[in-house]
Design brief:
By secondary structure, this protein is an alpha/beta fold. Helices cover 27% and strands 25% of the residues. The chain starts with 5 loop residues before the first strand and ends with a strand.
Length: 165
Amino acid sequence: MGEGLKDTVLVIGLGSPIVSDDRVGLEVVRRIEEMRLDGVETRQEAIGGLDIIPMIMGYRRVIIVDAIKSGARPPGTVMVFDPEDFAPTITDSSAHDVNLATAMYLGRQLEPESMPEQVRFIAVEVEELLTVSEEMTPAVEAAVPDAVAKVLRLLGLDVEGGEVE
């Protein structure tokens, strides 16, 4: 398993550029993209569910940055998860309503040799996912540098003061 996978790390930001805090994943990845890091490929996507599978196939390591609204933590909290952390949310729902955990599970069942060996999620707790706006709420906007730093750490880069050393 894992032979033929690209060593380039894929960093995907998920979200909508016109829905308030849902744009946080896109903004984090935009900032990573501007750093032009060797061995890192970035994508900004407004997709979800099963559409993620073909996008991540063929990469050894993937980092996905997205908004999460659990209500369990204050807006602006940045968390790092492994796919296994979402195992309880895997469902047999219709293909039109598949969450990321279910998509990852299905991908590993259908194409195990093409799926990444490591997937990590950076999730930013958000406040507003219903308002059409190109502005994020202040707490989520303030969390972007922390989310960028967490991505850089997952990439194996030391971060201090927001800059790569």
